[in-house]
Amino acid sequence: MNRIYDGLPIVGQNAACTVAGMYRQYIRYRPIFHHRLAELQASMHLPLDEIHSLQWRRLERLVNRARKYVPHYKTLPAPSAASDGQVAIRETLDTIPVLRKETYRESSQNFVATDVPKREILRGKTSGTTGTALPLYSTKSTLAAEYATVWRLRSSHGVGIRDPHMTFNGQLIVPVKQVKPPYWRSNWSQHQVLFSIYHMTIRNREKYVDAIHSTKSVYVDGYPSALYQAAQMMLELGRPLEEGRLKAVFTSSESLLAYQREIIEEAFCAPVWDRYGTAEFAVSMTACEEKNLHVDMEYCIVEVDVVEETDDYVRGPLLVTGLANDVTPFLRYSIGDSGTRLKKPCPCGRVGDVFLDVDGRNDDFVVTPEGRRVGRLDHIFKDQRGLIEAQIRQEVSDSIDVLYVPGRHFDTGSESALRREIHSRLGESIHVRLLSVDAIPREANGKFRAVKSSVIWNSSEEIS
User: Fold this and answer.
1) pLDDT at 385 over 70
2) Across-strand partners of 124?
3) Mean pLDDT value across residues 237-264
4) How far apart (Å, rounded) are the C-alpha atoms in residues 325 and 153?
5) How far apart, in whole angstroms, are the C-alpha atoms of residue 249 and residue 240?
6) What is the pLDDT at residue 378?
7) In whole angstroms, what is the distance from residue 217 CA to residue 178 CA?
8) pLDDT over 70 for what percent of the chain?
9) Which of 295, 370, 413, 437 has the smallest set of CB atoms within 10 Å of its CB?
10) Which of these ranges, 29-43, 138-152, 293-307, 405-419, has the smallest mean pLDDT?
11) 60: buried, middle or exposed (CB in 10 Å: 19+, 13-18, 0-12)?
12) Nearest-CA neighbor of 12 among 175, 138, 195, 151?
C-alpha cells in the first residue's frame, strides 16, 4: 500500500489523505461522540462527590461485565457493596490484581469480551515505542469516548472540529525519498495540513516556515518534539506567527518538556495545551492553565504505586483503569509510565485528581553511580538556547552520553555550561560524554525520546 501511495502524484496523495481523513471522521465523530462530548462538558464542573459517584457506577458496570464476558476476569470477586462511591472504588480495586503488559501480550484474546460481535470490533496495536507492539481491540463507542475527552479540551479553548489546522506527527505522508518540496499534504475534508516530520532539516526550514505562515489554520496539533523543531526553525529565521493568529497549540503522544513549551509558545504565539493518553484507551489527562494534568475521571481511574511521598505529592508508576472500553477492559493496568500526583487541589479550581507531570516510560530516567534514579531532566536543557535538541542515553550507571544538535550560537562556552548543568543535577561522579550530531533519530513511530536508558534500577533505591 505504501508503494502505491508513494507512486501517486502529489494531488493523488492529497486525495488519499482526504479519503483517509473522511474515514477517520466517520469512525470518530458519529452521533454517539456528540452525546459523549455533551456528557463530559456537563460533568466537568460537578462537585467531587458526584464525580466519584459517576466514576463508581461506570467501574461497577465494567467489573460486572468483565466477570461475565471476559475470560481473564471470570474469577474476579463481585464489586464492593459500599454506599459511598469513593470507598466502593477503593474496595473494588483492592480485589483486582495488577495487570502487567506481559500478561496481556501473552494472552490478549482472553481479554476480549465474548458478547461483542466480531464485526463490531476494531483492531489496532500500540506504537511499540519500547518493545513489541500490543494487539488492541475497541469499538466505535470506545473511540467516541476517547475523542470526547480530546474535544472537551479543545472546545474549551474555542476550537471546533471543522476548523482549519496544522498537524505535525509521525504519519508517513511524504515519501522519505522525496527531496523537493512540498513536504506536507492536505486533508481537504478536515481542512488539515499534515507536515512531514521526516524532512525537517536546516536546508528545508525556509520552505516549512513559508508553508506554516501560508495556512489559514486556527490551531496546530502534534508531537511536542516536532512542534519544537518547527518552532526553532521559525525563531532562527525571525519569523514567529503574529499574535492572535492561532487560538491554541495541542500536544500529545510524548512528554511535553518545559523548554519545548517555552519555544513553541514563543514561535506560534499561542498557549500550549497538553494531553496524556494511550493507545489502550485506558487513561486520559488534560492540561489546565496552571500547566497541571487533570485526570478525566469520567473516563478512567488512575492510581499511583507510590515510591516517593512528600507533604505535597506522591510519585511512582501509574496503574490505570479505563472505564469506556467494553470489548477489552484494562483493570489496574501497569501502563509503563510514572507520574507525580498532587495532594492539594489545583489552583485552577477544577476538582479531582491532578498530576504535576507524567514522566514517560519507566526507563526514561538516569541512574547515578550512587543509585539515585533521576527524572524530569528536561530542565537541564531549558536555558541552553544554543541547542536545537538533545537526548540522554545511558547503558551503565556511571556514565551517560548526551547527543545534541547545536544551533548557530552554540560554542565551547555553551558546551561548558551544559556540562555544568548536567553535573549539578546528576552529581560529579557520573561520567558525561557530549556528542555533537546533525540529527537525533526518532523511534520507529516517529516519536522523540529525551532519555533512553537500558540500566536496570532497584526499586528500593532513591528517586530524585
Assistant:
1) no
2) 136
3) 93
4) 20
5) 14
6) 64
7) 25
8) 92
9) 413
10) 405-419
11) middle
12) 175
Whole-angstrom CA distances from 401 to 213, 364, 404, 434 are 37, 14, 10, 6
Average pLDDT value over all residues in the chain: 90
Q: Which three cell numbers stand for residue 62?
A: 465494567
The answer on pLDDT for 372 being more than 70 is no
Of the listed ranges 92-96, 199-203, 373-377, 439-443, the least confidently predicted one is: 373-377
Longest dimension (CA), the chain: 66
Give CATH 3.30.300.30 domain extents, the chain: 366-453
With respect to CATH, is domain 366-453 assigned 3.30.300.30?
yes
For residue 181, what pLDDT is reported? 94
Q: What is the DSSP letter of 353?
A: -
Q: What angle do CA 45, 47, 52 make, to 5 degrees?
A: 110
Q: Would you put residue 193 in left (φ > 0), alpha (ψ -120 to 50) or beta?
A: beta
Three-state SS letters, 28-44: HCCHHHHHHHHHHHHHC
Q: Tell me the percentage of the chain whose pLDDT exceeds 90.
A: 67
Residue 338 vs residues 291, 305, 342, 363, 365: alpha-carbon distances, Å: 17, 9, 13, 10, 10
Residue 315 CA to residue 464 CA, distance in Å, equals 10
Numbered ranges of CATH 3.40.50 in the chain:
1-43+158-270
At a CB cut-off of 8 Å and minimum separation 6, what does 247 contact? 157, 158, 159, 218, 219, 270
* H/E run at residue 71: none
Fold of 1-43+158-270: Rossmann fold (3.40.50)
**How many other β-carbons are positioned within 10 Å of the β-carbon of residue 131?**
12
